[in-house]
Every structure is written in C-alpha cells, then in structure tokens.
Amino acid sequence: MAKSRRLFLRIAGSTAVIAAAGAVGFAATRTPDKALAPWSVAGSTYTDARMRALSYAVLAPNPHNQQPWLVTLEGDDSFTLSYDLDQMLPHTDPFNRQIVIGLGCFLELMRMAAASDGYRADVDLFPKGQPEPLLDGRPIARVTLAKDASVAASPLFAEVFNRRSNKEPFDTSRPVAPADLAAITSVAGAGAITGTVSDGETIDHLRDISWRAHLVEVETPRTYMESVEVMRFGKAEINAKPDGIDMGGPFLEALNLAGILTRDTLADMSSQAYAQGIDMYREILWSAMGYVYVGAAENTRLDQIAAGRDWVRMNLKAAQLGLAIHPLSQALQEYPEMD
Ligand SMILES: Cc1cc2nc3c(=O)[nH]c(=O)nc-3n(C[C@H](O)[C@H](O)[C@H](O)COP(=O)(O)O)c2cc1C
User: Fold this and answer.
1) Does 250 contact ligand 1 (Cβ within 6 A)?
2) Is the dihedral of CA 228, 105, 171, 211 positive or negative?
3) Which listed site, 27, 32, 273, 311, has its alpha carbon 20 to 30 Å from 147?
4) 295: β partners
5) CB-side neighbour CA atoms (13 Å) of 261
6) Please, what's the largest Cα pairwise distance for the chain?
C-alpha cells in the first residue's frame, strides 16, 4: 500500500470507508481510463508524422499538470505551438516561468518522437518575439518536420512511457550512487548549469529548505488554493478534467465519497485533511536521497525552454536508471512570501 494511503488511513476512522476502498468490485473499476488514454494512444493511432510526434509530446511533465499546450497544424508538415492563457498559475508561477519550462519539455518529447520516426524537427522559437513579462498570446514555436536519414532515435526516448514525477516518499534504505546522479545531469544540453548533491549534510540542508518552502506555499492561502482548485477527486472528475492534480484510486476516492477528503475539507486550513496533507509532504520531502538541479545563467524565455528540454531528458535518464524524481519548485517561486 502506498505510504500516502497509510497516512490517510489514520484519519479515515471509518471501517466503511476502508471496506469500500478494499472492495474488489469498487477497486477494480476506479481506473480513469479516459484520462489515461493518451498514454496508450501515443504513437499508435496516427499516420500524420506531426500527430504521431505530438501524441508523445502531450505526455510531457508540466507544472500542476496544467497541460497548457495548444497546437495549430499548418500545411502538410508544420505546426505552431501556443498555450491556453486560462491554464496559467498566476499565484505560484507569476511570470509563467514554470509554464514555459513545461512547454520546453513538450518540445523536447516532440523532437525525440519525430526523430524516432526518422523526422528532423526544425524549431523556430518565439517567431513573434519572446513574450515578456507575461505570456501574452505570442506563440512558443513554429515547427516543421522533414524526413532526414541522418536523424537517429535517442535511447532516452525508449523511457517515454516509464517517465513520471514521483509523489511518494523515497526508500530511505537505498542510497543513490553519486555516479547515477552524474549520469542524470550528463544528458542536459551544453549550455546548462547542472549539479548534484549526494553528501548527507547538504542533503539535510536541502531537505530543510524544500520542506520550509513547501510550508510557505501551503500556509499562504492564495498559493495553496491554486493547487486545491485544480485537484480532481475520483474517477468521474479525473476523466472529465484530465488536467490538474489527480486525487484518484480506490482509497482516495472512498475518502472523497465519505466526505473526508474533498475540495472543501482541504480548503479548510483547520481541518484534519489539511493537517494530514502536511504530514504526508513532510514524510515525502524529508525522504529525498539526493538532488539534481538544472539552471541557466539568465532567465530569458529561451533559457526556460532549454531548461524544460534538459528537465525531461534528465527525467528520462532517471527512469532508465530505475530512479524516480520528484520535482521541487517551491523554493524558486517568485512571490513575496517565498522571498
Ligand atoms: C516546471 C515544472 C515544475 C514542477 N514543479 C513540481 C513541484 O514543485 N512539485 C511536484 O510535486 N511536481 C512538480 N512538477 C511535476 C508535475 O506535477 C508533473 O509533471 C505533472 O503532474 C504530470 O505528471 P507526470 O510528470 O508524472 O507525467 C513540475 C513539473 C514541471 C515541468
């Protein structure tokens, strides 16, 4: 049983809820198949090379799972990548930095997918200029795919279906080899500033920073509510709105049906559900067994796209090594309480 579930068991306090979650009929039917369909459709349904590449790109990691991407197909071989301004995160990502990083992850998965089909992706970034200080509707990229015999598939792309963002505590009995951390950062692009942390003292220091940054986010009502508002509770809601943060699976759904874990109980910062969420994250963040980071000398939109490309490559490399990564953005977020 996942540790987060065990933690919530402590507050469930209702045998009926636990029995419902464990009931075979209930548990067997809680998978949100419609929301998960893109993971099985990728690469299989489409003949158009652009659609094939894009069907993988939509599996990209992105902040709060907002999936902001919008694509317009143009002619036979091109498309423009833009974004839905309704999918921004104005409180935790006030300058849209994280959203642009996620769009960089999208472009890199698209490029790798096209390469695995023998296509070169010619990417013209910000063809109408870099949108500053906020995204303003100007597109991210215009892309043309061309058959190219010199293009080779990346071994990292083989991990596309194994890559996820971990949201569970790490196994603290298994140290991560410094060589594995170095292998993860080795796949970042030439201009990236990367680093690894594997010594116990610095790990503790970063655990403490990430934990305190998490507390700032969840104790600041507007930044905390930005997460609560995009939570999707149970199968029906996840299928209807596959973006956002999923609170799915038989156990969480049973807690939701019992009224224990709902948008309202989580929004109430004096509730047990809120306190339990904090306990869950304390365990998660204090279990980090090593860190990798990627940065850029400046913070232009181009740097953000490059960081996203590096990010997803590092995430794929970790998957290849059998390691999980939990992205941590909080300490870098640009709002006064976090400063
Ligand atoms: C720029 C960026 C910032 C993110 N920040 C966080 C974070 O602070 N905490 C977290 O748990 N996940 C974070 N994520 C991971 C997303 O939640 C995750 O990618 C998304 O929910 C999709 O899930 P998947 O990566 O497992 O496919 C971030 C992802 C990106 C690209």
Assistant:
1) no
2) negative
3) 311
4) 193
5) 29
6) 62
- The residue ranges of every structural domain in the chain are 3-30+199-285, 35-165+291-338
Residues of the chain with pLDDT below 70 are 1-24
Quick check: 89 and 68 in contact, CB under 8 A? no
pTM here?
A: 0.94
Residue 33's CB: how many other CB atoms inside 10 A?
10
Bridge-based pairing state of the strands 245-247 and 231-233: parallel
Report the distance separating Cα 85 and Cα 136, nearest Å: 8
Q: How far is the CA of 23 from the centre of ligand 1 (A)?
A: 31
Tokens for 299, please give them.
Answer: 């913070």
Give the Å distances, CA to CA, from 47 to 37, 43, 73, 76, 110.
18, 9, 14, 12, 15
What pLDDT is stored for residue 27 in this prediction? 78
Instruction: Say which DSSP state 31 is in.
Output: -
CATH classification of 35-165+291-338, choosing from 2.40.10, 3.40.109, 3.30.1330, 2.30.29?
A: 3.40.109
For residue 230 the two structure tokens come to 């995009």
What separation, in Å, do the N-terminal and C-terminal C-alpha atoms of the chain show? 37
The pLDDT score that the predictor gives to residue 16 is 57
User: Torsions phi, psi of 292, nearest 5?
Assistant: -130, 150
Helix (H, G, I), strand (E, B) or coil at 76: coil
| 4, 62, 93: residue to mutate for ligand 1 pocket, most atoms within 8 A of CB | 62
| CA 329 to centroid of ligand 1, rounded, Å | 8
CA atoms within 13 A on the CB side of 284: 24
